[in-house]
């Protein structure tokens, strides 16, 4: 391993990534939020919140703010050439929202299926969602990482009678 002084002196291969990692806004007001982002993420989180309340508690302002930070900083630092906004939101949902979801009740299983149906934009009865049906819809999904994780949790619930995100 090289000494830290050498690492700091070497030119970064991804200047945008380095600048992103050095950017530490303290509040949302320190960011210049893109037009419509709060409403867009608000709609998404409001839709998921109906299920989240049963799965581990409501989606809180810290989770919302983390997603706003992620999307805004990715855009600000030019990472949109590498990651689309949907991909950044997907990573944020997977890492900031889903980790507290767990359950072992019939209501929890229903909420998990409902969240999967919501992310896949399936209008039919969520109780009919199976892992096979859900996986077949992932190629057209805006948030495939999160959806794939939820499908794994659904499989765990079916096999073991409980589910968690770990």
Fold topology:
Layout (H helix, E strand, L loop, with lengths): L3 H6 L5 H8 L14 H19 L5 H16 L8 H13 L4 E2 L2 H15 L10 H7 L6 H17 L2 E2 L2
Antiparallel strand pairs: 1-2
Description:
The structure is a single chain. Helix content is about 60%, strand content about 0%. The protein is mostly helical and about 170 residues long. The protein has one domain. Strands 1-2 form a two-stranded antiparallel sheet. Helix 3 packs antiparallel against helix 6 (about 105-120), helix 5 (about 85-95) packs parallel to helix 8 (about 145-160) and helix 6 (about 105-120) packs antiparallel against helix 8 (about 145-160). The radius of gyration is 18 Å and the shape is globular. The relative contact order is 0.12. The model is unreliable at about 5-10 (pLDDT under 50).
């Amino acid at each position: 391993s090289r000494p830290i002084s050498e690492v700091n002196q070497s030119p970064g291969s991804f200047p945008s990534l380095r600048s992103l990692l050095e950017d530490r806004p303290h509040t949302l007001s320190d960011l210049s939020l893109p037009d419509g982002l709060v409403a867009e993420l608000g709609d998404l989180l409001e839709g998921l919140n109906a299920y989240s309340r049963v799965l581990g508690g409501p989606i809180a302002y810290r989770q919302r703010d983390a997603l706003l930070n992620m999307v805004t900083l990715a855009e600000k630092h030019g990472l949109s050439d590498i990651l689309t906004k949907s991909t950044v939101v997907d990573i944020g949902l997977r890492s900031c929202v889903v980790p507290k979801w767990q359950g072992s009740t019939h209501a929890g299983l229903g909420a998990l299926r409902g969240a999967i149906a919501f992310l896949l934009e399936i209008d039919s009865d969520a109780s009919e969602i199976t892992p096979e049906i859900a996986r077949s819809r992932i190629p057209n999904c805006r948030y495939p990482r999160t959806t794939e994780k939820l499908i794994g949790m659904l499989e765990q619930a079916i096999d073991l009678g409980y589910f968690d995100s770990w």
